[in-house]
Amino acid sequence: MVDELVVECVHASEGCSYTGQRQGIPVHLKEECEYAEVKCEEGEGGCGEVMRRWEVREHFEKMHGEKEKEEEVKEMEEKEEEEEFRCAKDTTSKVSVLTEQNVLLRQRVEMLEGTVQGLRGELKSMQGEIMALRESVVGLVAGVENVGRRNEMALANETLRMGEEMMSVRAQMHGLRMQMHGMMMERNNSYLQVPGSITKL
Predict the structure, then answer these.
(1) Which residue intervals of the chain are DSSP H helices?
(2) Residue 200: left (phi > 0), alpha (psi -120 to 50), or beta?
(3) Domain coordinates of the chain in residue numbers?
(4) Mean pLDDT by 10-residue block, N- to C-terminus, for the chain (201 residues)?
(5) Do 8 and 18 form a contact (C-beta atoms < 8 A)?
(6) How big is the CA angle at 72 (ends 70 and 78), to the nearest 5 degrees?
(7) What φ, ψ does residue 21 adopt, rounded to 5°?
(8) What is the rounded distance in angstroms from the CA atom of residue 40 to the CA atom of residue 49?
């Protein structure tokens, strides 16, 4: 808020050392600032002379006497006491508000910490599940590779076996051919060796 900014008095260049919130400057100028211009209001009409507040005391001594000066000083002291009481009251109220806000913030922080702890627990659980899934996947991959190797070995063995059987069949067929060829040769020879056989043209 702009009104809560801490600023100097408008008469700082003239010597006023007051600093406070911007919203308090009008009250300071009206009731406290020694360099603010005020009118003499002594009596019902007052003399109306305009002067700096710090000049009021001397003016009273010269123009209105000691009694009026004492009354003015007393009134100023009372106003100063009222201002101090008001400032103390405002400070107490602000401290109370800040304390309540601090309590609320602590409660929110505690709630957030609880939420974070819960999320951390869930994250750890998820990490454990992920590790278990990874191990399962690795096991499945190893099993698939093992089955593949076994299938390859079985296929190779079966191929070799079938090759050997084919070679055995071919050898048997060749043996049968040779036997048949031998039998045909023997039969032909037997025909050629029969006595008195006549060859017909």
Answers:
(1) 25-31, 56-59, 65-192
(2) beta
(3) 2-118
(4) 79 87 87 86 66 82 65 77 78 84 90 90 90 90 89 89 89 89 84 58 41
(5) yes
(6) 100
(7) -65, 150
(8) 5
